[in-house]
Structure formats: C-alpha cells, structure tokens
Design brief:
By secondary structure, the chain is mainly α. It contains 16 helices and no strands.
Length: about 350
Amino acid sequence: MREAAWPLLRDDLGLSYAQIGLLIAVPNLVGGLVQPAFGLLADAGHRRALVLGGGVTFAAALAAVAGAWGFLPLMAASLVLAPASGAFVSLAQATLIDVGGGGPERSMARWVAAGSVGVVAGPLALSIALAAGLGWRETFVGLAAIGGLLVLGARRVPFGTGNGSLREGVHGAFGALRQREVLRWLVLKDVTDLMGDVLFGFLALYFVDVVGVSPAEAALAVGVWTAGGLVGDFALLAILRRVSGPTHLRVTAAVALVVFPAFLLAPGLWPKIVLVGALGAIRAGWYAIPKAQVFAELPGRSGAAVALSDLSSLPQSLLPLAVGLLAAEIGLGNALWAALLAPVALLLLVPRR
C-alpha cells in the first residue's frame, strides 16, 4: 500500500525524489544491520519472543507513519518499522521453512503466494479508501489494526526451542559465508530486487510523473502489477512440480529482457498497464527461489539463513537511493532502465543444471 501511496505522501509531505529514495533505503539499511542478530537469536531459542515483540512494534510503527507530518517524522517511523518487520515477518518465514513439507523451494513458493494476496490487497485498499473520501493516513491506521490482530493470532504458533547457542550460531553463519553456493544465491536474491521492490517503490511515481496520469490511475497500475505477481506466484506452485527452480529463473529472465524495455517504450497508459501486469507475473520466483536455495544450503539453520540474507541485503538497501539520485539527475523514466541488471544477472549467474 505504501508504494501505491507514494504520490500522495510526496504531495502531502512535500517530499523530493531523493527524500523518497532515502525513506526506502535508510530504513532497509538499518534493518539489515539489526536483523541478522534476530536470526541468530531465533536459532538460540528466542524466536517466539522476537516474533511477538516485533509484531507489537510493527503495528505501533504503522500507526506512527499514519501520524507523520513531514520527512523527519516519517523517517523515524520507518526506521522502527523496518527492523520490526524483520523480527515479525522474516522469522515467521524461517519457521515455515522448518515445518513446511515439500522442500525449501515449495515452501518459499507458498510463502510468496500467500504474501502476494496482501500485496494485491494494499493498493486495492488504498483505491477503495480514496473512492470513499478517505486518505493514506486512514489506510495506515487500518494496517496498524490488522497488525495487532495478527500478533494476537500468532500467540498460539509453535516456534520451537532452538538448536544451539548464540556463539555457535555466529560461528556457523560466518562459516557459511565461505561457501560459494551460498554467496551465489545471496547475490542473486539481492540483485534481482532491482526489478522487484526497487521498481515497485517507484512505479506509482513513474506513472504520475512520466506517463502523466492521476494518482488514482497510478494506483490502478500498481494494482495490476501486484495482480500479475499474484497470478505468477500461484502458477509457480505448479511450475516447480515440473521444472527446477534454476531453469525457471533462466527462462523468465530471458523473457523479462524483452518485456521490460517494451514496457518503458510503450506509448500511452493502457499498453503500459498490460505490460506491467506481465512483468509482475514474469518475475514470480525471483525472490522465492534464490532465498529457498540459501535455506537449502543451510539445513536446520533457518535463523542463520535469515541472518545471512539480511546481512547481504545491506548493499541492496542502497539501491532505491541510487535510483532516486539517478532519477533526480536524468529523470525517472531513464533511471528505471537500471532494472535490466536483474535479468542479466540471472542469465549470467544461475547455474545450468
């Protein structure tokens, strides 16, 4: 929902492209610094406290976003929201990998498909709120309430007791960084985000500032992107029964090298909306499969896998800032061509097996 609301936040709070880039990048950077400790503590037996405490903080930070009156209050709320999400959401993901059947790829595919429902609901909720005469602040209050309900529901989840000490977890995590395959999949997980959350974060602004449509039409475009992702994520559940994850990545990367330039060059609103929906579907699995491969390389250490994923995301967290600064210099439409690095990296680094 936040991504769809960026044009509204930009106008209400007087934000620049560079400030929006900072609001996306800096909290992710802080979260990347703090969250690895959460993963290691989770493996040491503190997962339940981290998930529930993170959920309470997550809901409170969403309420603080709703009350922000400028760049600095919004930044402060976002700085709390990012690590709280790491404790609340990422450790729930690790728990699913531990208890889910069918292997890490299938479990991650189920996780992402479930998350896509929420991703679709966010822009839709904003569109409904705008049509009802409400605004982005009211929708964030609603999200905070939903977060509180999720914490109540999570109290009965069995999180396990851990399988080692914090010292052993730290030693094992740093040892895993010397494994070539772990490093390969960590790099791919982060680089592909250029055509994931980074592009998603600027998508509404692109439609407003480059295509020249209204914020409501931009929210529709974001909704089409997320709907395409929802279709692709559920299709991935069936695809992975017949095709290996690496093969799927290579094929979809080749398709994206054609569809993404077509999206940027297409004239008018509706051709772009059709192509952005296709892009949302094509990139299904670009997060789930590399992340699943990291879990697969570290069996029985899901918390350590989360910790390494968060640690590797530190450089990735600067990508939105880089795109924002580039957009300030050469325009947002030109800056988004950098997202082509994602499918190129997949074609170069995914093993042929």
